[in-house]
Design goal:
Strand content: 15-25%
Coiled coil: 203-234
Distance between the termini: 37 Å
Number of strands: 25
Number of helices: 17
Helix content: 25-40%
InterPro entries: Restrct_endonuc_typeI_TRD_sf (IPR044946), Type-I_RS_S_subunit (IPR052021)
CATH superfamily of the largest domain: DNA methylase specificity domains
Keywords: Coiled coil, DNA-binding, Restriction system
Oligomer: single chain
Radius of gyration: 26 Å
CATH class of the largest domain: Alpha Beta
Protein name: Restriction modification system DNA specificity domain protein
CATH topology of the largest domain: Adenine-n6-DNA-methyltransferase TaqI, Chain A, domain 2
GO molecular function: DNA binding
Structural class: alpha+beta
Length: 471
């Protein structure tokens, strides 16, 4: 006898037998979309529960209360990961917290070991990744670890948890409180499709290769930053910022611009630009070496096919094309002044994220446009793009961008101010070298993301009976 019989998908209506009813009697647990995905997993040739292959554990309430104190977090040296650090098949080390090493060692149950699967279980998103080698890590709030007790490819399993069917399983098992949460018992009971080892390895290898490419991209970015830092001596100017005037400043008449508010002229940027001139660095305004334009507002139900880049799509060096909205070809053709070209720099110009800058470069996407909360800088010499991007993302570059913000409640950056930002000029050979390194880093990031997408698709094809290693 079937556990479930789907009567209707829209509206959702499901018949279930008494055996299938567990302690969950809310209708959301039995909605048709979840049942369809559950039934597909259940039909796989070999399925086991998470608990058959993994020990599942999290930071206990008393561990957090007793040991994650303000004093300990101030003196901490070991990274404790929280749900915001666990991304899809990777760890984001921004906004981390740290605990003292001796506490890390004493809380054995919540220590993280290499190849543990880390899963965020509270909040809107439930994402999984594997713990890297050669770094001490600890569980923080709202994440758990799955430690394998039998031979299984952990990268395959983390990919299953991130794919459509894993996410459907986790979403079904969530319980609603202040935040949606999946408790440890329900995580242990989630069904895992277990393919032969060679298929697990085939899928897992894609994720491992993606991790290698991502790490290589980080190394390349750091290499390019070090070249620029050495050439411009940015570390020296970072230190000099603290000596910038805070209360008053004398300005030559020719330096007075459209702004007449005093704070615009009493800031670190003017001071650092003067310091750079003293050190013999040649400075040019962006308007001297580039054109500046902005995007447009867009709403349409027409057929869409051209990427429409928004602030939320700016992702470190590059554009996150996985999240972009699309515009129709007719609108794209009409908005010629907002059409992007390869190597354009994209700026966030409104809200709390002013200062974000990314590069429009993608060897598979030649056309794109952008939204009204972003602007582009099109450099006359494309070889300038990478070094200018890195400079603008540096401490000194960020100060230069933020100088021009107007508005108290609705912050804004004008195109005029972007054009007035001073950029140090560097040697042509050096900027070409930086450009090659940064483009290689971006290519690696794109390929890494593509491999993760392929791995997820492989798992979904496996469950649906469409998988082939020959593809």
């Amino acid at each position: 006898m079937n556990e479930y019989n789907i009567v209707s998908s829209i509206p959702s209506c499901v018949w279930t037998n008494g055996v299938a009813i567990n302690d969950r009697i809310d209708s959301m647990y039995y909605r048709s979309s979840s049942i369809k995905d559950y039934q597909k997993i259940k039909k796989f040739s070999k399925i086991k529960r998470v608990s058959n292959y993994f020990d599942v554990s999290k930071l206990s309430g008393f561990e957090y209360t007793d040991y994650f104190t303000e004093e300990n977090l101030k003196s901490g040296t070991v990274i404790a990961l929280t749900s915001q650090n666990v991304m899809e098949n990777q760890i984001n080390f921004d906004n981390i917290i740290k605990i003292p090493f001796e506490i890390h060692n004493s809380l054995e149950r919540s220590k993280i070991y290499p190849n543990d699967i880390l899963l965020s279980y509270t909040g809107q998103y439930r994402r999984a990744c594997t713990a890297p080698q050669n770094i001490e890590l600890h569980l923080g709030p709202n994440i758990c670890r799955l430690r394998s007790t039998k031979l299984i490819d952990v990268h395959y399993v983390s990919t299953f948890l991130n794919c459509r069917y894993g996410q459907s399983s986790l979403d079904r098992e969530k319980t609603m409180s202040a935040q949606p949460t999946v408790n440890m018992g329900r995580i242990r009971d989630i069904l895992l499709p277990i393919p032969p080892p060679e298929i697990q390895r085939y899928i897992g290898d894609k994720v491992r290769k993606a991790e290698e490419l991502r790490e290589e991209a980080k190394r390349l970015k750091k290499e390019a930053e070090e070249i620029l830092n050495t050439e411009l001596n940015l570390s020296y100017f970072n230190e000099r910022v603290k000596y910038a005037p805070k209360m008053y400043n004398w300005m030559c008449g020719e330096l007075i611009e459209a702004r007449i508010d005093s704070q615009y002229y009493i800031n670190e940027t003017n001071f650092i630009n003067a310091e750079m001139n003293k050190k013999g660095l040649k400075l040019k305004k962006i308007s001297e070496v580039a054109s500046v334009g902005k995007g447009f507002s867009y709403t349409s139900l027409d057929k869409k096919s051209i990427p429409y880049i928004r602030i939320s799509d700016l992702d470190d060096l590059l554009i996150n094309f996985d999240s972009v909205e699309m515009v129709d070809k007719k609108t794209y053709s009409e908005k010629k002044s907002s059409q992007l070209e390869q190597y354009d720099l994209i700026f966030a110009i409104t809200g709390a994220t002013i200062g974000k800058v990314s590069l429009f470069y993608n060897n598979k996407c030649s056309k794109a446009t952008l939204s009204s909360d972003t602007a582009f800088v099109r450099l006359k010499d494309k070889n300038d793009a990478a070094y200018v991007l890195l400079y603008l993302k540096s401490i000194i570059g960020q100060i230069s961008i933020l100088k021009g913000i107007t508005g108290a409640t609705n912050r804004h950056l004008s195109l005029e101010h972007i054009g007035d930002i001073f950029i140090p000029v560097i040697d042509n050979k050096l900027k070409r070298e930086i450009n090659i390194i940064v483009i290689k880093a971006i290519d690696n990031m794109f390929l890494s993301k593509q491999l993760i997408k392929e791995a997820k698709q492989d798992v979904e094809d496996l469950i649906e009976g469409n998988f082939s290693m020959k593809k």
